[in-house]
């Protein structure tokens, strides 16, 4: 479920919390890392289950509106596309989805009908003309006309509608986002990442494949083991790595460097020294990207300069042992 790039980010956050005093011990720091991953996974399945429940709620409202004949079928087209969406029907049968909503105990009907109703009213309100869903549908029809005939099917049209609705309107919906952010600091920090994952899931769904939803994660997954090891080695040797970093900061006093930059530099040195199979350039690029994400504007250039010097010095001192062809350059 998680790749190394994401795991690095979570390991950096866990180590930052430890340095800042948010964890009592190295063991609790590692537990915080795993707890954070589980919270991120739960948010992913929450969003999928919300789509399913929103579709079911839309079906109830569609049936009610059709019976009362207040709106024409043309006016209810956007609502019907959500209510009877073939991609959502496929998700509902996905064994990985069913397993994980059971594991995480999601039950929208019993607990959060008001939230579903509020999001529904925001997206499917027909009181003042075409709803947001209708506008998305009209936009989709223009794209659909340009699609090769061989690629067209009812499932594909429904999948594209669901993705456009989720990516543009449901995922970013302030009502849903506020609900999630109020319930978990992890959900607040990972919200955008999770919406990208769910959007990608919808984009890649295939009617021929039953298990489109990610299976989940385990502490024994390769990427997670990498993150645990990286954090463990950093915690174990942090004094040594920090001394190595500070000795190479020409014209910079350690107190002038932000805590986040110190955390990134220390963890990057740990990765240089403890993971022979990871190319130096990969480590450099990853921590420069982390600096762009977590630090002030010019920090990435600073991190780049310091890490390049450290990598060269480690290589000169024969401390940089990389396995495989071309892994040092």
Name the average pLDDT.
91
Q: Determine the structural class based on helices, strands and strand pairing.
A: mainly alpha
Give the topology string: H per helix, E per strand. Answer: HHHHHHHHHHHHHHH
- How many domains? The number is 2
- How much beta, percentage-wise? under 5%
| Shape verdict | elongated
Helix percent band: over 70%
CA radius of gyration: 24 Å
Stretches where pLDDT falls below 50 for ≥5 residues?
325-329
Please describe the biggest sheet, giving its number of strands, its sense, and whether it closes into a barrel. Answer: none
**If helices are DSSP runs of H or I spanning 4 or more residues, what is the number of helices?**
15
Number of strands: 0
For the termini, the CA-CA separation is 30 Å
Give me a quick take on this structure:
The protein has 329 residues and is an all-alpha fold. 71% of the residues lie in helices and 0% in strands. It starts with a helix and ends in a 13-residue tail after the last helix.
Main attributes?
single chain, 329 residues, mainly alpha, N-utilizing Substance Protein B Homolog, Chain A, 15 helices, 71% helix, disordered C terminus
Could you explain the architecture of this structure?
The chain is mainly α and 329 residues long. The chain folds into two domains: 4-14 and 23-204, no CATH class; 222-316, N-utilizing Substance Protein B Homolog, Chain A (Orthogonal Bundle), CATH 1.10.940. It is 71% helix and 0% strand. The chain has helices at 4-19, 26-68, 77-83, 86-92, 95-103, 108-111, 113-124, 132-145, 154-170, 174-183, 185-204, 222-246, 259-274, 280-294, 299-316. The protein is elongated, with a radius of gyration of 24 Å. The protein starts with a helix and ends in a 13-residue tail after the last helix. Residues 325-329 have low confidence and may be disordered.
């Amino acid at each position: 479920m998680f790749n190394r790039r994401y795991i690095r980010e979570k390991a950096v956050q866990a180590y930052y919390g430890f340095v800042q005093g948010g964890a009592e011990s190295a063991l609790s720091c590692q537990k915080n890392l795993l707890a954070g991953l589980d919270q991120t996974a739960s948010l992913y399945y929450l969003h999928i289950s919300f789509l399913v429940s929103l579709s079911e709620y839309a079906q109830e409202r569609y049936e009610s509106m059709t019976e009362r004949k207040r709106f024409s079928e043309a006016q209810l087209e956007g609502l019907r596309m959500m209510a009877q969406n073939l991609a959502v029907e496929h998700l509902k049968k996905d064994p990985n989805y069913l397993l994980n909503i059971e594991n995480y105990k999601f039950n929208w009907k019993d607990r959060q009908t008001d939230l579903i109703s509020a999001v529904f009213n925001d997206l499917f309100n027909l009181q003042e003309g075409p709803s947001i869903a209708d506008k998305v549908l009209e936009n989709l029809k223009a794209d659909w006309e340009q699609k090769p005939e061989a690629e067209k099917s009812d499932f594909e049209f429904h999948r594209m509608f669901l993705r456009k609705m989720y990516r543009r309107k449901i995922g970013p919906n302030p009502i849903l986002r506020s609900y999630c952010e109020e319930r978990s600091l992890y959900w607040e920090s990972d919200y955008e990442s999770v919406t990208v994952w769910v959007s990608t899931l919808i984009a890649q769904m295939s009617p021929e494949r039953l298990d489109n939803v990610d299976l989940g994660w385990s502490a024994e997954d390769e990427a997670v083991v990498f993150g645990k090891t990286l954090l463990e080695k950093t915690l174990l040797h942090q004094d040594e790595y920090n001394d190595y970093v500070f000795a190479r900061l020409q014209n910079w006093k350690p107190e002038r460097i932000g805590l986040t930059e110190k955390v990134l530099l220390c963890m990057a040195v740990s990765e240089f020294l403890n993971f022979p199979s990871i190319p130096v350039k990969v480590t450099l690029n990853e921590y420069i990207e982390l600096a762009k994400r977590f630090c002030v504007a010019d920090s990435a250039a600073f991190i780049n300069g310091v890490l390049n010097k450290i990598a060269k010095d480690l290589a000169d001192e024969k401390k940089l042992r990389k396995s495989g062809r071309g892994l040092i350059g």
